[in-house]
Structure formats: structure tokens, C-alpha cells
Design goal:
This protein is of the alpha/beta class. It contains 6 helices and 7 strands. It has a single domain, classed as SPOUT methyltransferase, trefoil knot domain (Alpha/beta knot). About 30% of the residues lie in helices and about 20% in strands. The protein has a 7-stranded parallel β-sheet, sandwiched between helices.
């Protein structure tokens, strides 16, 4: 039988070490995400895979927040974050910094997540949208492309925090964080 590891056996880094360590060249943009639990979950996943930063836009809540903390469990204090009034403004800023911006949305001409090709050394940003409406069309139009997660059931979408986890994991693998 496999014994569960104790937290003290996992060798996790502290906050200061986390802040100083090299990050995955990925920014996660949340475009009008309503649920504070989803926001907190994205912070926690971003911490796990050392995402460079999160950009919160529009109605997306920002830390400090007890509701975000319930799922982030402190990751809102380790992962850098910024706030922009609109995702369009965030996309413009990211593109001017040299990021390739990809909306996570079901679009004509989208790339299936499993077919994602990344260039080592390049920096990427992914935009995840509102739980009901998705990424705004104007933001999709301003992006460099779109990534779609193929689905095979009756539902047409996944929870935004689940989507974030899948997409961040894929970038972590393809950008060399996961060996």
C-alpha cells in the first residue's frame, strides 16, 4: 500500500523562494469571471505550475477576498496579479510586451489543445472567459488565435477553472516545466 506523504515531506518552496524562482512564460487572463471560487482555483493552479502572472479583468474579483482565499489557499499571495478594466486593454498590453495571446474559446479556425505547438523561448498569454458567455468576441478578434478543448458529451463547455487547469498543464508540458 502507498502511504500518503506528509506536507513536510513534499519539499515545497516558501513564498520568497517562489517569488524568486523562474516562472513559466505564461500569463492567464480572466475575462469577466463571476465566481470567486473559480478565481481562487485559477490562482492555486497557477501557483502549482509557476505561471508568470494572472490578469483579472472587468467584473472579475481581485484579492484580498475571503471567497477567493477559500480555493486559492494563499496562492493569491504568491502569484503576481494585475487588474485591467477590460480584457481588450490587457490583450493590448500583453501584445506590446511581446506575448502571443490565445483565447480559449470554440471558434472557427481554433487549434485543438492537443495540437498546440509552442516555441521555446516565446511568451504566451491565454484568455479565459465568463462562465456563461465565454471570451468576448472583441477579445477573440484581438487575440493571435484560439485554442479549443475538444469535448465529446452533450455539454458545450467546461468550468473555467477546469479549463484553466487543462490549458496550464498543457503549456507546462510543452514549455518544459514538466519533463
Amino acid at each position: 500500500m502507498n502511504r500518503k506523504k506528509l506536507v513536510t515531506e513534499m519539499g515545497r518552496m516558501g513564498r520568497e523562494e517562489f517569488r524568486a524562482v523562474r516562472k513559466l512564460p505564461l500569463v492567464v487572463v480572466l475575462d469577466n469571471v463571476r465566481s470567486l471560487h473559480n478565481v481562487g482555483s485559477v490562482f492555486r493552479t497557477s501557483d502549482a505550475f509557476r505561471v508568470e502572472r494572472i490578469i483579472l479583468c472587468g467584473i472579475t474579483a481581485t484579492p484580498p477576498s475571503a471567497e477567493i482565499h477559500k480555493t486559492a489557499l494563499g496562492a493569491e499571495d504568491t502569484v503576481e496579479w494585475q487588474y485591467f478594466e477590460s480584457a481588450i486593454e490587457a490583450v493590448g498590453a500583453l501584445r506590446s510586451e511581446g506575448f502571443k495571446v490565445l483565447s480559449i474559446e470554440q471558434c472557427e479556425g481554433s487549434i485543438a489543445l492537443q495540437d498546440l505547438a509552442v516555441v521555446p523561448g516565446d511568451s504566451y498569454a491565454v484568455v479565459l472567459g465568463n462562465e456563461v458567455k465565454g471570451v468576448q468576441q472583441s477579445v477573440v478578434d484581438a487575440s493571435d488565435g484560439a485554442i479549443e478543448i475538444p469535448q465529446f458529451g452533450t455539454k458545450h463547455s467546461l468550468n473555467v477553472s477546469v479549463t484553466a487547469g487543462m490549458v496550464i498543464w498543457e503549456f507546462a508540458k510543452r514549455l518544459g516545466l514538466v519533463k
